Amino acid sequence: MLSHRFLCSFFFSLFTTVLSAGCRDSDNNCRDWVGTDPQTCKHTDYIRINCPFSCGHCGSVIRKYDITRLSPDLASLAWLIGKWRSEHGGKAIFPTIPKFTYGEEIEFTVPDDKMQAVRAINYTAFAWSINDKDELHSEYGYIAVKPNTKELALTTVMNNGFVTVEEGKVSSSYIKFSLRDIGRISFSRDLPVHDLVREWTLLDRSTLQARLHMETLTHGMQEHTFIRYDKIAP
What we know:
By secondary structure, the chain is mainly beta. Helix content is 15%, strand content 47%. Strands 1-2-3-4-5-6-7-8-9-10 form a ten-stranded antiparallel β-barrel. The radius of gyration is 21 Å and the shape is globular.
């Protein structure tokens, strides 16, 4: 005969699994509220009841995606946190290259609590060709927010030999960066970039759109890439 302790443990695990499977926020503002002040999950009844996912009540959340760990300066970026992927939805176009489609995965994660420098969200991106999955482009960087403002900066290092500093502003579901400075290794095969504009737009809680405009030594500002990602984590 099964022990009482075993049965209790079994039904608790089953209940937790079922709860987590259907656990979701019922208000689209939950992520912003909790990102701004995680304590509202404890002290505000409406948020505690209607924001179980953002409050971390749906089971354990991977630490790097836990928005309750965001510092107040980074709260405006809570809607970005997660892993986003498009298998083959990217479109690239520019006068110096043939048009092509691509896949890409990007990730925004919460920084380590012990970071002593300016707090910044970690950013990575990896793009591949849709035919043979070869690497097309990768970049790594950080997104920092100027304290007590909506102004932010993105720094990136790219595998094509470019390093960028971009600055812009963030709203509840939109970010627009403009190029402030750029470095380029002497033997890069790509044309010198004179300017770029990067936009990220949250279309809904599970869809992120990215658009990049670029100006080079030989061609004026125009759209270079466009892609829509699905959220795959958390």
